[in-house]
Amino acid sequence: MMARGHRIFKIKMGAGPVEKDVAKLALLRRELGPEVGLRADVTPPDAVTDFAAANIAGCEPMSTGFQAFSLGFAGFLVPFAFVLNPELLLAGTPGSIVLMTLKTLVAVIWRAGGIIGQFLYPLTGLQRCLFAGAAALLIWPGLLPDVAGLVLFLLARPWRRNAGPLSE
After folding, report:
1. What is the distance of C-alpha 114 from the center of its chain?
2. At what angle do helices 94-116 and 143-156 cross, to 10 degrees?
């Protein structure tokens, strides 16, 4: 396998007991050695850790799972940012790398605010949509999407308590 260039293996786990899956992974690690990468994907049921945390805290499991999903959903923006912007892979000038890193950070914060519904104050439904759109535009390369994203953010007016977009 190594002679043919295979150095990373993806392993599906979760169908059996956890102890057996961990033992399989440890065995593969010993047999293949440290120069080979192993990636273990757990098959459903998803959100097991969320349900376990809800049980420990004495909370409703489904609402805890939905809350965990909404908190983690902003992270789905980052892979798209990496694909669209090579500066995030440190390919570019130092200035462009810093600018793209800051833009991606702001986009993740805006996306999280739009999903959770809270920025400086609670957001209305329209403000949440504007935040999500602004975040998506901010990671898109080019000046025009950046300006459009900033305009959407300014239309949301999140700094005004109880003020919906474009209302006085």
Report:
1. 13
2. 30
Instruction: Tell me, yes or no, if the pTM score tops 0.85.
Output: no
Evaluate if residue 13 carries a pLDDT over 70: no
**What gap in Å lies between CA 108 and CA 88, rounded to an integer?**
14
**pLDDT tens string 69-113:** 777 776 677 788 888 888 988 998 999 999 999 999 999 899 888
- Smallest CA-to-CA distance from 133 within 121, 123, 145 is with 145
In degrees, rounded to 5, the angle at the alpha carbon of residue 100 between the alpha carbons of residues 98 and 101 is: 65
Domain residue spans of the chain: 8-42, 68-156
CA distances from 156 to 67, 92, 107, 126, 129 (A): 23, 32, 14, 8, 9
CA distance 145 to 132: 13
Which H or E run includes 42? strand 37-42
